[in-house]
Design brief:
With about 290 residues, the chain is mainly alpha-helical. It is built from 15 helices and three strands. A three-stranded antiparallel β-sheet has the order 1-3-2. Helix 1 packs across helix 11, helix 2 crosses helix 3 and helix 2 runs antiparallel to helix 8.
Length: about 290
Amino acid sequence: MDTAHALHRPILAWYSVAARSLPWREAGATPWGVMVSEFMLQQTPVKRVLPVYEEWIRRWPTPEALAEEPAGEAVRAWGRLGYPRRALRLHGAAVAITERHGGEVPEDHAALLALPGVGEYTAAAVASFAFRQRHAVLDTNVRRVFARAVSGQEYPANATTAAERRTAAALLPELPETAATWAVAVMELGALVCTARSPECGACPVQRSCAWRLAGSPPYEGPARRGQSYEGTDRQVRGKLLAVLRDAPDSVAQATLDAVWPDGVQRARALDGLVADGLVEPVAPGVYRLPR
């Protein structure tokens, strides 16, 4: 039995009973809802995304509804999800969808890829999950499953490689509907069972054919994996500054921002970065607000 057949049936069968019930997977979920979820889920756990997602879709059920509001409102509603530039990119995508596609998320993969803030992964995910098309969807969870089950390695490389893309393409089922389910099933397996730190190999549907497990689960020997440090970083300072601006009804004086972090040099660097990224606007000397 080849690798594809050894993986397809057990993973799809596992997903049919183990899949989480999530609002963007429900029968009534719109392509816009799927797109919003994909932006929010990047580097962010589902449990943190759910309340923000539900409020976002209630307030902006369509791209046009979001496009009608200032970009700063998207940043404000993003709350503490982290990586707030995603909010600006999602707002930019909503504006482009409204202007170029009559307010409807496009089905065409190339049209999706041409939207602001939509990269290789997001275009494939939306085309697959919203429109049931046949695309290889490679996020961190999928890459880890393939690294272990196919390549016999504990972790994939830091950046997606050509070899990983070839593996994903070779494993993709031929029928678009099956391929779309396969894409989300492998992702779910990586999120729930084949996790980064504590994989539950005994509960894995492909444990008998997993190359990594059959090799004795050898430890990772590749280049150092990127850490996720946060405390004391410019990213933490940016978050604190944005929190003040999100909670303010309008503009905020420099003195109020100065109170959130003691290191003046680092604080100024973080604020300058927020301005450069378009997340904060200076409206007068020493006065700032979210973008409009």
